[in-house]
Design a protein that fits this description.
454 residues; alpha/beta; FAD/NAD(P)-binding domain; 5-stranded parallel beta sheet; 4-stranded parallel beta sheet; 25 strands
């Protein structure tokens, strides 16, 4: 059985590892990156607490001793279910079983201005770009010529009160209190604003109301301005427009207000439901597409307990991968398939030093404060791939806890690239007409990186 897995997130990688060295199965794992990204800690990369390499694990290293798993660093362009093949950037690949584990990306709700000007945080690259811009804003604030520009540069707006927004807001608040005043003594950090906006009636809407209340209390204690029932209508790069009619002057908006599935070309639009997810049955099969399965955030599986689909969290993707691995092996043996049922092991979010919330469904328990923070750290250390990564993350956390500091506040600037000749210049060169040489780069001509357009 030739199994092609597209996507090396929590679900795709777990499935490949479960099928590793299993008789009768050949696995091809495809991802546009050559590493697995530990998404729950993106916010710590964005706030200079961790290096990107600490939460990334090379895919090929995970299969050094594998006899049946191979890796391709490619981007999927199209699925052709009728011919049982997929088309990537450079080749056509056939399959017996295709597993789509492409996950989800930021949902900007078709707002082009927000798409262009706000910062998402759904990949390591985006987290690094966010860190660069955040630090660059303070460099610019030091040189700001008037108080209005300085205030705009020192205001951070986070749209979305889920775990990502809450954890990022708490981390930025601690930086404002402990770190940034030492880096920038010229600035008054009592003027820095961190604003967390959410359209719902409470933060962490998927968690217990007690956790929502505790998280909001912790954030407000750290000086974060929490605004509920507040919807961002537009953002032009300098001013946030709210649905209520108000505006917020800021140079930075972090968008954590929603996600949408990464549906590839070739999938029938009739199979795509709310949240841009693909309909699947209880075995993660796509109806009407022979040999095509979907797991993780991209899968919309309706069950009696979860009629609107399972939560888009790592634990659901991992469990679906484990069930599918069993079913593929049962198919080879000619045995019947088993149905998937999500086992909710709980949810958690951290706000800051010694501040976190944890919900456990069975038995129904709620933890907060120091004990919840220790549970959060222990679980995340356990889930990170690689002993070396776990060690470095743990050492970074210990260092930050003792010193109240992060050591990764670096801005890497792009190298100068000479302008490419215009179409008119190219035509003149082809015709043999002399054109002036491109100028040499001036000293110090490097420019700060900007987020690529979506």
């Amino acid at each position: 059985m030739k199994v092609v897995i597209v996507g090396a997130g929590f679900g795709g990688l777990r499935l490949a590892r479960k099928l590793n060295n299993k008789e009768g199965i050949d696995v091809l794992l495809i991802d546009k990156f050559n590493y697995h990204q530990f998404q729950p800690l993106f916010y710590q990369v964005a706030t200079a607490a961790l290096d990107a390499s600490n939460i990334s694990f090379p895919l090929r290293k995970a299969f050094h001793k594998s006899r049946n798993v191979r890796i391709r660093v490619e981007e999927l362009k199209q699925v052709v279910p009728a011919e049982k093949k997929i088309i990537t950037e450079s080749e056509v690949i056939t399959y017996d079983v295709l597993v789509l584990a492409l996950g989800a990306d930021t949902n900007f709700f078709n707002n082009q201005n927000v798409t262009t000007n706000a910062f998402p945080m759904k990949s390591t690259v985006e987290a690094i770009q966010l860190r660069h811009r955040f630090i660059q804003n303070f460099e610019d604030a030091v040189r700001a010529s008037n108080p209005e520009d300085r205030q705009r540069l020192m205001t951070v707006v986070i749209a979305g009160g889920g775990p990502t927004g809450v954890e990022l807001a708490g981390a930025l608040a601690e930086m404002r209190h402990y770190t940034l005043p030492c880096d920038y003594p010229e600035l008054d950090f009592k003027q820095m604003k961190i604003m967390l906006l959410d359209g719902g009636e409470r933060l962490l809407g998927a968690m217990d109301p007690k956790s929502s209340a505790d998280a909001q209390r912790y954030l407000e204690k750290l000086g974060v301005e929490v605004h509920l029932n507040t919807i961002v209508k537009d953002y032009d790069g300098r001013n946030v427009s709210l649905a209520s009619g108000g505006t917020i002057a800021t140079e930075m908006v972090v968008w954590a207000a929603g996600i949408r599935g990464n549906v590839p070309e070739g999938i029938d639009k009739a199979l795509v439901v709310r949240g841009n997810r693909i309909t699947v049955d209880r075995q993660n099969r796509v109806p009407g597409l022979e040999g095509v399965y979907v797991i993780g955030d991209l899968a919309a599986m309706s069950t009696p307990r979860y009629p609107n689909g399972h939560p888009q969290v790592a634990s659901a993707a991992i469990q679906q991968a484990e069930t599918l691995s069993k079913n593929l092996r049962r198919m080879i043996k000619g045995e019947g398939l088993i149905e998937y049922e999500y086992k909710d092991k709980g949810s958690m979010a951290t706000v800051g030093r010694n501040l976190a919330v944890v919900d456990v469904p069975k038995p129904r328990l709620h933890f907060r404060g120091l004990i919840a923070w220790l549970i959060w750290m222990g679980l995340h250390l356990f889930l990170i791939l690689g002993v070396k990564n776990r060690l470095f993350v743990f050492l970074n956390w210990v260092y930050s806890y003792i010193t109240y500091d992060q050591s990764l506040r670096l801005i890497f600037k792009e190298f100068y690239r000479p302008k490419q000749p215009t179409d008119a210049t190219k035509q003149a060169q082809i015709a043999g007409v002399a054109t002036p040489a491109l100028p040499d780069p001036p000293d110090g001509s490097e420019t700060a990186p900007t987020r690529p357009q979506s």
